[in-house]
Amino acid sequence: MARIIHSSGITFGTTADTRHGQLHYSAGTACLDGLPALYDSTGHFVEPVNQWFLELKTVKRLVDINTAAKAMLRYWRFLERENLEWNYFPPVNRLKPTYRFRSEDLLSAAKEGRMAFSTANSCIGQVVRFYIWAIENHHLVISIEKEAPFKLEFVARQNNGMLAHLRPRVLIQTSDLRIRVPRHANPAVSSLTPLSMEHLSLMAAHLNNQSHEFILMSLLACESGLRLREACSFTVNALQEARPASELKSRYHITIGPRNGVETKFGKTRTIEVSATLLNLLRHYALSERREKRLSRWEKQFQPELTNPQDASLSGSDSRDNYPRFEPVFISQQGNPVRPEVLNARWGTFRNMLRQKDPGFRYRFHDLRSTYATYRLHSLFESGLSEGEALDCLMGWMGHQNESTTFKYIRFLKMNETLKFAFSILDTVMSRISEAEHDGHL
User: Fold this and answer.
1) Average pLDDT, rounded, for the chain
2) Are 67 and 127 in contact, with CB atoms under 8 Å apart?
């Protein structure tokens, strides 16, 4: 099965010149924190895809290309599963790998509720961008039109920019592979799916039966609005920075981002809020015997194997110099940081178990984030904050770049009277987890 491996860091911008009959290289002028690389099921480096990733980072200067990496990984796994070649396109569209990927994998997943239509459209869009780049850079040669991976199209869209009165409609380049996102009478309702009161209680009732790591990462999403990758990469360094949000010390603020190793979206630094109960659970877990065993396996990966006891003194350096700067909170039994795809798979198993009790429980892990935002926003209104003040608070905690993204939660609350309950429902979830810990079940 194809997989993505992330490098620890690369330097680019090296130049070469000849002086005195010898070839000299200058040091790189720029450095990247890391770069994803795609390897196929046989372990071979997928050169065209990885060259595209490199161009996205170095030429396009994109901060985050995880979306492109995940899309190409899904596409490559589909090709391997169906024994298809990425660069062979029969003249019939329904037989081409791109069209088959769209219909057999993405559309199928979207219709069954395993993937949002918008996510499916984003995924196929990344595949289209890769092929356009591959053709422009001669990695894929198309001799006749029937062998093209797709057809480019231009569609008219409403212009919402500053000059919309001069140019009300603009042409957007797309392809015949695009997946239409179903329209909804209320855009906020279609894009936000927070857990209902009943489903939140159902989740709380069965969460204690899951692993410690799964419980805490789920609570970080539901109580603090962390994304899946942010919850997986949460570090002890970030945990140590917790500071009281007020004199009551009922909630704490934690700054997360590259400076303490948490992999936030676009590498943006932001401050989140954590309840005192969740903070205590995290601190207790960080010092638990269960985690200490996993931590020792993680640390062994960075300890050099010495065949001679004198090698340590001869090396002249402390072995801890090789350790990563940040210590992950959540570590697998094998001693590796928990990967987002693993957490997502475990959430799928948990969701399927709850669906047997209530078929309506069809939420993604990301919906825990919107659950936090929806209930927390209403609690801010209940505390007397104005709409603007509440919007500013939530926008900072969620890490939204645009007010319009946060404002949709206000529209959602106004359209859904049944969700206008106190934020205490999440406190109820926390109290159940805390009681389980004291009883020795966590």
Assistant:
1) 83
2) no
